[in-house]
Amino acid sequence: MDNITMKLNADKYLMMALEEDITSEDVSTNAVMPEYKKGTVDLICKSDGVICGLEVYGRVFQLLDEATEIDYKVKDGDKVTSGQLLAVVTGDIRVLLSGERVALNYLQRMSGIATYTNQVASLLKGSKTTLLDTRKTTPNARIFEKYAVRVGGGSNHRYNLSDGVMLKDNHIGAAGSITKAVAMAKDYAPFVRKVEVEVETLDQVKEAADAGADIIMLDNMDIDTMKKAIEIIDGRAKTECSGNVTKENIDKLSKVGVDYISSGALTHSAPIMDISMKNMKVL
C-alpha cells in the first residue's frame, strides 16, 4: 500500500482505531515511562503464512510520532515462518507501547486474510477460474482487507455499491423481473458499467442471458445445476459462482468451468496470523 493511498484513504481509519484505544491517555505506559526515552522492539512471527500489512503496521506508530523508524526484514506477500524476525521498530518507547495493539491488530488480520486467500488461490492453479472476494468485510476495514486479498493471490470484486451494478434477488423483486431490472440498469448506469445478475434457478439463468446481462452469478447451485446453467449461457455472459465457497469445496467448483468464484470467507472467516512484538530495549 503506497504512501499516497495511505494518506488519502487509510490514515483516517488508523486514527479512528488509535482514538478508540487511547481516549485520553495510555495510563499503563505513562506510569512506567513518564518521559521520552528512545528504544527498539522486534516484530516476530509466531506462525507460518503470508505477511501483509507491514506499511499499515508502521504507519500506526508514525501517526503517533513521525520520527519512528521501521527496519523491515520482509515485504508484503513474502512467505514467513514461525520465529522469523519481520522488522525492528525504533523510536519513543511511549509510542512503541501505546501503538502496539492497534498496529498488531491490522497486521495480524491482514496477514491472516492473505494467508487464507493464498491457500484457496493455490487450489485454482491451472484452471481458468479467477478467485474474487466480496463486500463481506469488517466495517471501516475494507481498504485493508481487500488489499490483503490481492497480496494473497486473489482478485477484488467491486469495492462498494458505487463500483458496479449487481442485481440481487431483492433488486429483481423491486423491479418486477430480471428482464425489467437489466433493462433499467442498462438505461441508468454509465455504459462503462457492467451489469451482473444473481440467479438461483435455470429459468432465471435463461432470462438473465436473454436480457443481456454481462455477468451471471450462480448463487448456491449444486454442481449439476451449474453445468446446465453454463450450457444455457453458452458464452453470452461471464459466469460467477457464489455461496458458501471455502477451501474445502473450491476444487470441485473450479472444475465446473465458471469464469469467477467469489468467496466471502476470504475476509470474514480467515483466522489471524500470530505475530507479536518482543525484546523491548531502552537505547
Characterise this structure.
With 283 residues, the chain is of the alpha/beta class. The chain folds into two domains: 3-120 and 271-282, Quinolinate phosphoribosyl transferase, N-terminal domain (Aldehyde Oxidoreductase, domain 3, Alpha-Beta Complex); 125-268, Aldolase class I (TIM Barrel), CATH 3.20.20. It has eleven helices and twelve strands. Strand 9 (215-219), helix 9 (223-233) and strand 10 (238-242) form a beta-alpha-beta unit. It is elongated and about 70 Å long. The model has no long low-confidence stretch (mean pLDDT 95).
Defining traits:
283 residues; alpha/beta; Aldehyde Oxidoreductase, domain 3; TIM Barrel; 2 domains; six-stranded parallel β-sheet; four-stranded antiparallel β-sheet; 11 helices; 12 strands; 44% helix; 20% strand; elongated
